[in-house]
TrEMBL record, chain A:
<keyword id="KW-1133">Transmembrane helix</keyword>
<dbReference type="GO" id="GO:0006465">
    <property type="term" value="P:signal peptide processing"/>
</dbReference>
<keyword id="KW-0812">Transmembrane</keyword>
<comment type="similarity">
    <text>Belongs to the SPCS1 family.</text>
</comment>
<feature type="transmembrane region" description="Helical">
    <location>
        <begin position="38"/>
        <end position="59"/>
    </location>
</feature>
<feature type="transmembrane region" description="Helical">
    <location>
        <begin position="12"/>
        <end position="31"/>
    </location>
</feature>
<keyword id="KW-0256">Endoplasmic reticulum</keyword>
<protein>
    <recommendedName>
        <fullName>Signal peptidase complex subunit 1</fullName>
    </recommendedName>
</protein>
<dbReference type="GO" id="GO:0005787">
    <property type="term" value="C:signal peptidase complex"/>
</dbReference>
Automatic annotation (TrEMBL), chain B:
<keyword id="KW-0472">Membrane</keyword>
<keyword id="KW-0735">Signal-anchor</keyword>
<dbReference type="GO" id="GO:0005787">
    <property type="term" value="C:signal peptidase complex"/>
</dbReference>
<dbReference type="Pfam" id="PF04573">
    <property type="entry name" value="SPC22"/>
</dbReference>
<dbReference type="GO" id="GO:0045047">
    <property type="term" value="P:protein targeting to ER"/>
</dbReference>
<dbReference type="GO" id="GO:0006465">
    <property type="term" value="P:signal peptide processing"/>
</dbReference>
<keyword id="KW-0812">Transmembrane</keyword>
<comment type="function">
    <text>Essential component of the signal peptidase complex (SPC) which catalyzes the cleavage of N-terminal signal sequences from nascent proteins as they are translocated into the lumen of the endoplasmic reticulum. Essential for the SPC catalytic activity, possibly by stabilizing and positioning the active center of the complex close to the lumenal surface.</text>
</comment>
<dbReference type="InterPro" id="IPR007653">
    <property type="entry name" value="SPC3"/>
</dbReference>
Length: 89, 167
């Protein structure tokens, strides 16, 4: 998943769960059925799981542009210079 | 959110936290319900008032218990536990409570009832204090919710008394 997809997936997950929680409480209270509330919320959790957990293709529409191999070879990595250590006397 | 496991974990913790929130809201909604239970108890007969062979007084009664606890039931109620207790004062104890009968009410339909029964549990005193004793019959109930805190309340019915002599 690319960065844009990760941001979208986090927001989608939170929104889906909050909305299904709110709908669950409202419908449960209106129909005086605790069972209705639990079932609606469970359905919402399953929906959120199916939408956000697998790596769907539409989360990969903004892939990172990595440097080409040929470009990378023209600019070698800088070497780390070993530091002199001062010893105690 | 970079991996399957990360997203699954994030979803699991967020969904469980949201579940705790909606259960708290459901429990809070009980405050908006009007509760007006009522009850009446008659003593039909005092069957026996005796002294047990090893010392304590015991009485056996027949009770006529009628109650309407339907308004205690909300969408968040699992069951109501109700019991009748005889309460009286003696020189030894400032409060004696003896449970005589109880019932578990699973839903609203069963919450309005009338029953005639002898006492389910034995009414035994700590001593010989029951002759001529005046006592209250109290209907206690515990409302057990599906989520949230249990609520307990009672109706006190005073004015009952036992015979002056063993019979």
């Amino acid at each position: 998943m690319d960065w844009q997809g990760q941001k979208v997936v986090e927001q989608l997950m939170q929104i889906l769960l909050v909305i299904s929680g709110v709908v669950a409480v409202v419908v449960g209270y209106a129909t005086e059925s605790f069972r209705a509330m639990m079932l609606i919320y469970a359905g919402g959790v399953v929906l959120a799981t199916l939408v956000t957990v697998p790596n769907w293709p539409f989360y990969n529409h903004h892939p990172l542009k990595w440097l080409d191999q040929s470009e990378a070879e023209k600019h070698p990595k800088p070497q780390v210079v070993a530091k002199k250590r001062f010893s105690k006397k | 959110m970079h991996s399957f496991g990360y997203r699954a974990n994030a979803l699991l913790t967020f969904s469980v936290t949201a579940l705790a929130f909606i259960c708290a809201i459901a429990s809070f909604s009980d405050k908006f319900s009007n509760q007006n239970p009522s009850a009446e108890i008659q003593i039909l007969n005092i069957n026996r008032l005796k002294k047990q062979s090893y010392g304590n007084d015991e009485v056996s009664l027949t009770l006529d218990i009628s109650a309407d606890l339907q308004s205690l039931f909300t969408w968040n109620t699992k069951q109501v536990f109700a019991f009748v207790a005889a309460e009286y004062e003696t020189s030894k104890n400032s409060l004696n409570q003896v449970s005589l009968w109880d019932v578990i009410i699973p839903d609203k339909e069963h919450a309005k009832f009338r029953i005639q029964t002898s006492n389910k549990y034995r009414f035994i005193d700590q001593g010989h204090n029951l002759r001529g004793r005046e006592f209250n019959l109290t209907l206690h109930w515990h409302v057990m919710p599906k989520t949230g805190k249990m609520l307990a309340d009672k109706i006190i019915m005073p004015g009952y008394s036992l015979p002056d002599a063993y019979k």
